[in-house]
């Protein structure tokens, strides 16, 4: 029974991994372009959001390939 839940969890992480590039592109191209063209001050969210979603993309990719069920690693990013 735990193997079925584990496969569902890996599938959820794989789906989230596939959704994240779309969020990355939305915040990178149209949103950032709109903010820059209209001189909107959004607390630098247009600059930070693409990098924020790319970190989650790496985390979801790692979690979808991981064999450890109790893996509680939080990836903040690397320098």
Helix fraction? over 70%
Order of helices and strands: HH
Number of strands: 0
Strand portion, in percent? under 5%
How many helical elements? 2
- Kindly name the structural category: mainly alpha
Q: How would you state the average pLDDT, rounded?
A: 78
Largest sheet: none
Report how far apart the termini are. 40 Å
Name the poorly predicted regions: none
Number of domains: 1
Rounded radius of gyration (Å):
16 Å
* Molecular shape: elongated
Please tell me about this protein's structure.
Keywords: Membrane, Transmembrane, Transmembrane helix. The chain crosses the membrane at residues 12-31, 43-62. It is a single chain. The chain is mostly helical. The chain has one domain. It has helices spanning 2-37, 45-65. The longest helix has 36 residues, at 2-37. The model has no long low-confidence stretch (mean pLDDT 78).
Summarize this structure as a short list of keywords or feature phrases.
79 residues, mainly alpha, 0% strand, elongated
Short summary of the structure?
With about 80 residues, this protein is mainly α. The protein is built from 2 helices and no strands. The longest helix has about 35 residues, at about 1-35.
Task: Map the helices and strands.
Blueprint: H1 2-37, H2 45-65
Helix pairs in contact: 1-2
């Amino acid at each position: 029974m735990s193997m079925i839940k584990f496969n569902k969890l890996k599938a959820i992480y794989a789906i989230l991994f596939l959704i994240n590039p779309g969020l990355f592109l939305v915040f990178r191209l149209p949103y950032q372009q709109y903010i820059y063209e209209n001189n909107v001050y959004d607390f630098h969210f247009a600059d930070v959001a693409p990098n924020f979603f790319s970190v989650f993309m790496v985390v979801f990719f790692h979690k979808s390939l991981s064999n450890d069920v109790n893996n509680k690693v939080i990836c903040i990013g690397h320098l």
